[in-house]
Design brief:
By secondary structure, the chain is mainly alpha-helical. The protein is built from ten helices and two strands, in the order ααααββαααααα. A two-stranded antiparallel sheet has the order 1-2.
Length: about 190
């Protein structure tokens, strides 16, 4: 066997696990609002983040260190501060926009949570019911689609269906069955009261 190839693949496995751990920490940052707390504040000391977030100091400290190690935050050891760059906040603390990526972390935890059931389905079949993915999966889908529905659904996507737009403008009605959190229906209702 090629020892360099073994080492290269071992490095890949470690990178994948490190990414999984970083995704878990990023999930915590979205869920607790830590990314939002740090947005636009520049360099913050541990006490500043704790005071602004209202969260437990010990957990916040570990999260800050972990997110800095993962490259999500910038750490300045001389000043003992952490910074969430504006470019990172644009993607991590912009709920409701079409560029918010926080839902990906919720999806990751949802998919990992059902991994044992998926593995079992390989031998027993039957798949995994959507309900087993849990409420974070619904939140993930909502977070990933919320901004697009509000900013593009009626003004851009429906524009490619002029007959449907004309019917809705004339007072047509729509029924959205099994609509998740209802973002599509809400966008329709807002555009076509």
């Amino acid at each position: 066997m090629d020892k360099e190839r073994i080492q290269a693949f071992a490095d890949k496995v470690y990178d994948d696990i490190a990414g999984t751990m970083a995704a878990g920490m990023a999930y915590a940052g979205v869920k607790t609002g830590l990314f939002r707390t740090m947005t636009g504040k520049g360099a913050m000391r541990l006490g500043d983040v704790v005071a602004a977030s209202g969260l437990q100091r010990r957990y916040v400290e570990e999260w800050l260190n972990g997110m800095a190690a993962a490259g999500y935050l910038i750490y300045d050891p001389a000043a003992e501060t952490w910074t969430l760059p504006d470019e990172h906040a644009y993607l991590l603390a912009s709920e409701g926009t079409d560029h918010f990526m926080g839902g990906l972390f919720f999806m990751g935890t949802s998919l990992l949570a059902v991994a044992p059931q998926v593995a079992e389905a390989f031998s027993k079949g039957g798949g995994v019911k959507f309900e087993h993915f849990g409420p974070d999966c619904i939140s993930a889908l909502d977070m990933l689609n919320h901004g697009s529905y509000e900013q593009r659904f009626t003004s851009y996507w429906l524009a490619s269906l002029p007959d449907i737009v004309a019917r809705l403008e004339a007072g047509g009605r729509a029924l959205d069955f099994g609509c998740g959190t209802g973002r599509a229906s809400l966008a329709l209702a807002k555009a076509f009261p």
